[in-house]
Design a protein that fits this description.
alpha+beta, YojJ-like (1, 10 helices, 11 strands, 268 residues, disordered C terminus
Length: 268
């Protein structure tokens, strides 16, 4: 590429400018996405080592360059091992950027109606239930642990799946768009001490799923018949059905294709 200018004896080309600009933008947005994360200080440490490597190689400091190379490998390995959760969240936030919105499955508000009506049927029968409603994060690893269904969401199907008489009632259901994708899925259990001490397996699985994804996870307690909603690291406990419905509509947001006449069922 043609030379643009020189800084002392260093020739700067258009390629160099683009290269530096791309790296700077990537580093800036990575820092922004990891803002308030435990991983940010370590990322800054890796950046300092990287700058040290540039200086060492430029000045031909062989011993320092050797030491920096060894430290770089160590820091990168420690970073990946210790901050798996933060890296996963970073990749999730990158995948949630507006440019990817057309690729996310969208549910109709009629499907929200059907989910809440299904919860009502499950509660009235005193079945236990665990339902994950996908938003943007892929749930493929969880789906692969269960039995694929691929059927349209209906209240009757949800109630049937969680009936103790059926072989699919253990585990969770995953809903994506307007379809029940899979049933009898294994949800990851939360390691949070508060939930481990105060809640049963079903609620711990719901929180675990919400911690590992942006899914909305509905729990129906077999003991009390109460419905709860897990979102990220929080649990909205004992929700009335009309409040559950409002939460689902609001939290699904852009993932819902609204219909003019889609309203909550009269039975609620």
């Amino acid at each position: 590429m043609p030379e643009l200018f020189k800084i002392y004896f260093i020739s700067i080309t258009l390629g160099d400018v683009i290269d530096i600009a791309v790296v700077s933008i990537l580093f800036y947005w990575t820092l922004r996405l990891m803002r308030d994360s435990r991983a940010r200080p370590m990322l800054m440490g890796i950046a300092i080592i990287f700058l040290g490597a540039v200086v060492a190689f430029t000045l031909d400091l062989k011993t320092v360059a050797w030491l920096v190379r060894r430290l770089s490998v160590l820091w990168a390995l420690v970073f990946v091992i210790l901050f798996q959760t933060e890296i996963r969240e970073l990749l999730t936030r990158l995948g949630n950027l507006p440019i990817f919105k057309p690729f996310f499955p969208k549910a109709t508000s009629e499907t929200i109606d059907n989910i809440v009506e299904g919860v009502r049927l499950i509660m009235s029968n005193r079945y236990g239930a665990l339902i994950a409603v996908r938003r943007k994060t892929s749930l493929e690893s969880v789906i692969s642990s269960g039995k694929r269904i691929g059927a349209k969401v209906t209240p009757e199907l949800l109630a049937t799946i969680f009936s103790p008489a059926t072989p699919l009632h253990d585990g969770g259901v995953v809903i994506s768009g307007d379809n029940i994708v899979a049933a009898a899925c294994e949800f990851p259990l939360t390691q949070d001490e508060h939930f481990r001490k105060n809640y049963g397996m079903r609620h711990r699985a719901a929180i675990g799923m919400a911690e590992h994804s942006d899914a909305l996870v509905i729990i129906v307690s077999e003991e009390t018949g109460a419905a709860s909603l897990a979102i990220h690291h929080t649990l909205k406990h004992n929700l009335p059905l009309d409040e559950l419905y409002r939460n689902l509509l609001i939290l699904m947001g852009e993932n819902v294709k609204r219909k003019k006449k889609a309203t909550i069922r009269n039975e609620l």
